Amino acid sequence: MATKRVVITGANGQLGQALQRTCPEWAEVIPLHRSDCDVTDPDAVAAQILPLQPAIILHCAAWTNVDACERDPLQAYRINALGVQHVAAIAQRVGAHLIMISTNYVFDGESAEPYHEFASPHPINVYGWSKLMGEEAARALCPHHTIVRTAMLYDRTSRNFVTTVLRLAREQSVLRMVYDQFGNPTFTDDLARALWTLASKGVYGTYHLVNSGHASWYDWARAIVQIADLPVAVEPIPASAYQRAARPPRNGVLTSLAAPALGITLPDWEDALRRCLRGES
Length: 281
What we know:
Blueprint: E1 4-9, H1 14-21, E2 27-32, H2 42-49, E3 56-59, H3 66-71, H4 73-94, E4 97-103, H5 126-141, E5 145-150, E6 153-154, H6 161-171, E7 174-178, E8 182-183, E9 186-187, H7 188-201, E10 205-208, E11 215-216, H8 217-227, E12 233-237, H9 258-261, H10 269-277
Parallel strand pairs: 1-2, 1-3, 3-4, 4-5, 5-10, 6-9, 7-12
Antiparallel strand pairs: 8-11
Helix pairs in contact: 1-7, 2-4, 4-5, 6-8
């Protein structure tokens, strides 16, 4: 495969770092950190990306603090919706393939079944709405676009649920975790490899990419402390006992019809968690 220039926005985030760790030989990666490219500023986006003339833009830059988005909706829309609009417009100008990372929070979580790519979005919080508006901007402005929805991302070192549980398990004797909200814990390295496969195939449309299987926050926390062999109890609590600014979807579980049709599947979430905690990719 011929070498292609690939710009990664949000390159200092956990997914951006994973994409750099798993970069294939055909990709000439140019990482753009937040300090390099403020996606809320269209002039800054144009100044950074236009001269590079990338073949692919992996747009990972986002504001993913769900509760903070609820408290500051305007900033959420500036980054997660307007930011995509600016990047998508430049992708269209240079003829780049735009791959935008979205979220399971575009769904309301009221379904009894996992959400596939053709289920109707209906967010219930600001974060979900801002990401859905970003999806719509990408679809409207860039004909060569791929929307990838994922969920519950983690790696071994960034600030995320896994590293938070490990820290709390060393500080407390009992952890209380929500048992009645569900999703797909997804290891960034597995997602990154799947994204590189999508990019190499040059396919467009909407895809759900998550580690297979699903878990509640309680299930996930129990697996973390068991694999890490930490002597701490994990107790289940209902979501109603945990006060948050934003209401997450009860059922945030994703499944995919589109990715397996291309031969793309991600490993089981518990296998991924073991690899992550052992320092394996």
